[in-house]
Amino acid sequence: MIVKDSRPAAQSVIDDKQLTFPMLEDRDQQFSIALSQVVGKSVANALPATLFIAPGGRIVYTYQGIALDDEKIRALTADHLGIEVAA
User: Fold this and answer.
1) What is the tens place of the pLDDT at every residue in 10-53?
2) End-to-end CA separation in angstroms for the chain
3) Could you give phi then psi for residue 42, rounded to 5 degrees?
4) Which residue has the higher pLDDT, 82 or 8?
5) What whole-number distance in Å separates Cα of residue 73 and Cα of residue 24?
6) Which long-range contacts (CB under 8 A, 24 or more apart) does 2-5 make?
7) What's this model's pTM, rounded to 2 decimal places?
8) Measured distance CA(64)–CA(67) in Å, rounded
9) Rounded Cα distance, 86 and 15, in Å
10) CB-based burial of residue 57 (10 Å sphere; 0-12 exposed, 13-18 middle, 19+ buried)?
């Protein structure tokens, strides 16, 4: 999610990290404002966050904290979405 960075700055990170997942741009911070209501924190403190979204679009879990490693993402995905992700 690109919130405050310019598109070229965000693209630089995407290229450097060789990210292949879609990136969304939130220029007007509408998503950030909505997320702040979900997590109960101000917009400035709502990100970074990892959302676990069930089929149909319902947010089933919101994680805020230290960066997630692969093992923790697999565990949270299994716990909150019931999906086992291979290592």
Assistant:
1) 888 888 888 887 777 887 888 888 888 877 777 666 667 788 99
2) 25
3) -65, 160
4) 82
5) 20
6) 2/26, 3/29, 3/32, 3/47
7) 0.64
8) 9
9) 26
10) exposed
**SS3 state at 57:** coil
Q: Which helix (H) or strand (E) holds 14?
A: helix 7-17
Tokens 């960075």 belong to residue: 5
**Three-state secondary structure call for residue 11:** helix
Asked if residues 80 and 68 have their Cβ atoms less than 8 Å apart, the reply is: no
Tokens read off for 84 = 């086992």
Helix, strand and coil content of the chain, in percent to the nearest 5, comes to 45, 15, 45
